[in-house]
Amino acid sequence: MSKKKQKKQKVIYYDDNSTIADMSNIPHARKPDAPRAPRSTFREKMKTYFSAVKMMIFPMCVVLFILALLFLILMLLAR
Fold first, then answer.
1. What gap in Å lies between CA 64 and CA 42, rounded to an integer?
2. Cα dihedral sign for 19, 25, 30, 32?
């Protein structure tokens, strides 16, 4: 009772005929001798965060106004 192992079929991409497991063209994330990028400070992170929040205040208020207006219209129609 010997069982023969079936070979698994390789999955091939249609564009370049390479298998999914072929990782030869992917660059490594970090080379050992590459210099590290400078890290951002807490102050820079907070400055970025608050500038993004300031940018989104007006659109948020517009959306809240539209939702409140729709709510009031639906409440008046439901009477």
1. 31
2. positive
